[in-house]
Amino acid sequence: MKLVIATHNIGKIREIRNKFADIPGLELVPLSDFPDAPEVIENGKTFKENAHRKAREAARFTGLPAMADDSGLVVDALGGRPGVRSARYGQLSAADADRNRMILDELRDVPADRRTTRFVCVISIQFPDGGGYFAEGACEGIIAESMRGSHGFGYDPIFYLPDVKKTMAELTMEEKNRISHRAKALDAMRKILIKLGN
Ligand code: IMP
Fold first, then answer.
1. Which among 155, 156, 167 is the best mutation to test ligand 1's pocket, defined by most ligand atoms within 8 Å of the CB?
2. Top mutation candidate among 71, 88, 119 for ligand 1, by most atoms within 8 Å of CB
3. DSSP character string of 57-71
4. E strands present in 38-158
5. Nearest one of 181, 185, 146 to 167, comparing CA atoms
6. CATH architecture entry for 2-197
7. Gap from CA of 140 to ligand 1 centroid (Å)
8. Domain map of the chain by residue range?
9. Radius of gyration of the chain (CA)
């Protein structure tokens, strides 16, 4: 089966290739093979809605099964924000560090036991003639008191993992890829793809 990977993020494409490398009969096709594919506006209310929309549009356009994901940070004390707005939280021009500072400010007076948070990733595979599959992964943590670490991207410097006593940005890429929300969702989707091939 050919499967279009509906993302332009090189890091994600590499991670997907790693996870799916040994699935028999699966050929991954980058969306860059279809330069005229339309950009999908991510204005859904849920991660699932956005992942579904991106996969469905890519499947319709390419005529092939397509896979897309949507992910973000859910902070309990902020009623689930930034959530689906994670990539655009705060000012349009804000950089990752500005967004992290904003969340630290918003949580300034919130005690440790109420700083619970999770990264969520939803992956969707959609077929050109309708129908599809979803897989979800989550990684639980605590919003740190300050930014720490220089690996990763986005909210990694404020995402503290109590078990390992490090922020996500203090983990190596290999360590992060073992526990991350995206890794878990990809593992679940991997099982679905293996079943589909049998
Ligand atoms: P998207 O799924 O590529 O649209 O990512 C949405 C946004 O969520 C990113 O721009 C980041 O701000 C945040 N995000 C998603 N996954 C991670 C992660 O693993 N670490 C840090 N931030 C993340």
1. 155
2. 71
3. HHHHHHSS-EEEEEE
4. 66-75, 116-126, 132-143
5. 146
6. Alpha-Beta Complex (3.90)
7. 15
8. 2-197
9. 17
User: What is the token pair recorded at 27?
Assistant: 């050929």
- Give the integer Cα–Cα distance in Å for 128 and 131: 8
Q: Is the CB of 155 under 6 A from ligand 1?
A: yes
Known catalytic residue at 70:
yes
127 neighbors 148 (Cβ within 8 angstroms):
no
> Hey, which residues does 105 pair with through a beta bridge?
none
pLDDT along the chain (198 residues), means of 10: 93 90 93 94 95 97 97 98 95 91 97 97 97 98 98 96 97 93 97 87
Nearest-angstrom CA–CA distance, 76 and 106:
12
Amino acid at residue number 68: A
CA quadruple 98, 74, 177, 50: dihedral, nearest 10: -100
Query: Considering the entire predicted model, what is its pTM?
Result: 0.95
